[in-house]
Amino acid sequence: MQEMFARNDVAGVDIAYVAEGHPRHPAIVLVMGMAAQLIHWPRPFVDALLAHDFYVVRMDNRDAGRSTHLHSLPAPDFAAIAGGNPASAPYSLVDMASDVIAVLDALGVARAHVAGASLGGAIAQTAAIAYPERVASLTSIMSTTGDTAVGQAHPSTLAAVFSGKPISTKEAYVDRMVRAYEISGAGTFAKDASEIRRVANLAYDRGHDDAAMARQAAAAMAAGDRTTQLRQLGIPTQVVHGLADTVCDPSGGIATATAIPGSCLTLVEGMGHSLPDILCSHFADLVARVAHRAMRPSEWKPQDAPRLVERLCVDR
């Protein structure tokens, strides 16, 4: 797989991406979460999407992986943002959504399906709001609306994941990633620790940056509540959330699905803040379902579509 770069001229950033599949197939862009990279999408999920004949595009957000890291920007003023001054953030979710569009432009794709996980879900939502002509369908995974009354991390999880000294070595970073998964990601779905370590080692080499994570966090914090704008969306939407998620409480996914007309909501028993390999084929089926609706707009209208709520239990 060859890594390519898309230039966002307005922002002056280069966005790393990998595209797989046939360019003439329907494109889907996968947007990862805070401090995560395109390599964090589970391979079984990518393969399942390819089996559905998608042109699968994974990207590194700005300040992640091989995309531009904005070291010259000032450190975020979280107190000012919390006090109601979103301009204190180094950049916004709209800016991050424009990076998605830059990737589409680089590929010559006029319209794509967009799926995002965690912060990536918020970016995907923002792309659908800000660029409705470019987003055919939306899949929002373990994310939220920006309303501070929902989707919050559990305090004990925050304390456990982000406690300790700043990361200064690869070994410390890898250990933190394993600990973070054990605390927040696994739920009741086990994942091989050696695979977590393998991906964490690769992520560190591709571009670990604690300061960048703070800038992304500031963008999320400054974005505010998208509920009103989400109510105006008129595209097929799938929302997925784990009921054991303590990083983004399931109330965030429920609120997202409640806001978006005609959306489908899948709640997964025992799933934490991660995408278990065993469920990736099913999640790809959900993405294909909303994409199928988007490709037949004459047959789908949000006011006519019943909200489908699915509670998924898996024998492990």
From TrEMBL:
**Keywords annotated in UniProt:** Hydrolase
Any idea where the AB hydrolase-1 domain is? 26-274
Q: Its GO biological process terms?
A: glycerolipid catabolic process
Please provide, alphabetically and separated by semicolons, the GO molecular function terms listed in this UniProt record: triacylglycerol lipase activity
Q: Which organism is it from?
A: Noviluteimonas gilva
- What is the protein's given name? Alpha/beta fold hydrolase
The record's annotation in InterPro entries points to: AB_hydrolase, AB_hydrolase_1, AB_hydrolase_fold
What's the short name of a Pfam family annotated to this entry?
Abhydrolase_1
